[in-house]
Give the backbone structure.
Amino acid sequence: MSPSPPAKGPGLAQGPDKPRLTEEEKKSNHIASEQKRRQAIRQGFDQLASIVPGMEGQGRSEAVVLEATVKYIREQYAEQLRLGQIAAAKGINPTSVPGLPETYRDTIGSQTSKDAALAAMQANQSNDASSAHENGNGL
């Protein structure tokens, strides 16, 4: 039976010429990793603050940046739906617009399906209410 290879993992020696990390080195590595993670988060929030309108001069409170970003995305989504409805009312298929990114096509297609299902459900409810009224079961 052959001997099993030496165990490898965090804190274990990786061979005869690679010594284990001291506690101070581990702590130092952990601190550096945490600082790098925090810096990446700060850069992400700074990028969001630079993209979202109205964030100029607001400081860099992460809660404020997130709140403004959510509000902005919701406004953009509502505007996208509004424009899609205008296009549909004019007989234009919103997904056939040249240069429209594929992600927008998916969103519009999904919303169009939801709108169609909602319209069908409302029509059925309206028909049910009319039928009930005609049969004397109405309010």
Q: What stands out?
A: The first helix runs from residue 23 to 51. The mean pLDDT is 78.
